[in-house]
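User: Could you write out the 3D structure of this protein bound to MU-OXO-diiron? I've included everything you need below.
Assistant: Certainly. Input first, then the structure.
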Amino acid sequence: MSSSLPAAVLQELTHQFNHELLAAQSYLALSVWCEAQNFSGCAAFFAKQAGEEREHADKIIAHLLDRGAPAAIAAMEAPRQKFSSLGDVALHAQALEQANTKGIHAALDAAVAAKDYPAQVLLHWFVSEQVEEEAWASKMVALVQRANCAGGLSSFDRHVSDLLSTGK
Ligand code: FEO
């Protein structure tokens, strides 16, 4: 199978879909932590995010296959699993999304430099998606910081999926 993908774009897209897979595992770990702490609303929210990250990886993998570049799945480090509080969890989720945005922008930079129009179109969807992803993560950080008592956190947990609408 010969590929029409410029090498630099292939490298960035490969890095990015592997990062999306790590994000999926990381959200699964956040979901497990939340369930263990009886934050069931947040557990369900993060389980859904884990599924979405997997879909993001699949989108890039499908693009690579369509262009004759079967995806190279990398070995994966274990996601972080220890957190001190729901605030700590929210900050970790925000850091994951910031890292994702950085990777998407690096891939788009490579696609623009290589005049790779198909990859640019693919990545435009991800650029918009990251605006939404960073928005819910920032809101989560702010709301959890504001709910600085057990009652406030329980209320946040009960309403998390309404409060952090991800437009899906
Ligand atoms: Fe694949 Fe949360 O961005």
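Helices lie at 7-36, 40-66, 86-113, 117-146, 150-163.
User: Perfect, thank you.
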